[in-house]
């Protein structure tokens, strides 16, 4: 990637002679001298001190020589990497992300795997969590977005898409800062009495349905208000605005500054995983398969 004149300059500097340089370049000494003269003219400073015994670098020439060696090394590395990429196909995987459905767990999974990252390149594609954004996401999945990470305990996700489980999030209760329960460090079932609670509508989530059923069986006098079949930012704004408790998961703790997430004495969890189209491309399936292997190897370490 170095110019012909620059390469000639390096050889003259290393041999200390136009004649010796000409032998390596298969040129006449006069031709080598003309190249160096023109090179010095283009740069605007003398690079060599000439004598009957040969040539030596000036201070400017010595600086240029050392910096050019660095450039030559970098150029060689760039060419080698370019050739490697040409011989090894890198697959780009488009991963959707949003505030409530962050791709962070997937990035964490891949961040320690330098060797495998050579096979795949992740492109982050943002989307919004409102109804319109989620509908567009589902429409674009397999077309402009290959996969996204999400809690998937909803009937809509589990029946329409392929899912690779990555883990599970603990279910908690979000408490508005103006609610008296926000002074607590954890909640009991009886703390829910005489409170308003936002839950996904009946039939939308197996886990949330189980929470509903336990509230009913415990005969807790809590007023339950339905959310749609998914969470978006308006769900948390509503919780704060109306002083309603809201069932949520641990990663959402920083989603609203006026909500405090507290643990309940239960074992309810919401699974989360990598969601993709059921007819995903082979390279996307390979990425998901590799993610599964990374997850398994991480769990056995």
TrEMBL record:
This protein's record includes keyword ATP-binding: no
Keyword Transferase recorded: no
Keywords in alphabetical order: DNA-binding, Transcription, Transcription regulation
Gene Ontology MF, one: DNA-binding transcription factor activity
Domain HTH lysR-type: 1-58
Pfam families the UniProt entry points to: HTH_1, LysR_substrate
Entry's family note: Belongs to the LysR transcriptional regulatory family.
Protein name, entry field: HTH lysR-type domain-containing protein
Origin species: Secundilactobacillus collinoides (Lactobacillus collinoides)
């Amino acid at each position: 990637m170095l110019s012909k004149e620059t390469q000639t300059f390096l050889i003259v500097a290393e041999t200390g002679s136009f004649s010796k340089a000409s032998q390596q370049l298969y040129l006449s000494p006069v031709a080598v001298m003309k190249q160096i003269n023109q090179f010095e003219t283009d740069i605007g400073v003398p690079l060599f001190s000439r004598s009957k015994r040969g040539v030596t670098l000036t201070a400017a020439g010595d600086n240029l020589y050392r910096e050019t060696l660095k450039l030559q090394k970098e150029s060689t590395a760039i060419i080698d990497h370019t050739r490697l990429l040409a011989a090894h196909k890198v697959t780009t995987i488009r991963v959707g992300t949003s505030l409530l459905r962050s791709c962070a767990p997937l990035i964490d999974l891949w961040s320690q795997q330098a060797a495998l990252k050579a096979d795949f390149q992740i492109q982050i594609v943002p989307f919004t969590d409102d109804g319109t954004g989620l509908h567009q996401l589902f429409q674009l999945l397999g077309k402009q977005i290959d996969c996204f990470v999400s809690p998937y305990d909803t009937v809509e996700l589990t029946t329409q898409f392929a899912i690779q489980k990555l883990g599970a999030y603990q279910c908690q209760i979000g408490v508005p800062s103006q609610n008296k329960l926000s002074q607590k460090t954890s909640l009991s079932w009886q703390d829910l009495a005489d409170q308003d609670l936002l839950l996904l509508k009946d039939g939308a989530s197996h886990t949330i349905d189980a929470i509903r059923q336990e509230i009913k069986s415990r005969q807790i006098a809590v007023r339950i208000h339905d959310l749609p079949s998914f969470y978006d930012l308006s769900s948390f704004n509503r919780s704060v605005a109306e002083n309603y408790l809201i069932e949520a998961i641990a990663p959402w703790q920083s989603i609203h500054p006026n909500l405090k997430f507290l643990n309940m004495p239960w074992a309810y969890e919401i699974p989360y995983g990598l969601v993709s189209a059921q007819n995903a491309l082979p390279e996307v399936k390979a990425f998901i398969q590799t993610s599964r292997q990374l997850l398994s190897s991480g769990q056995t370490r």
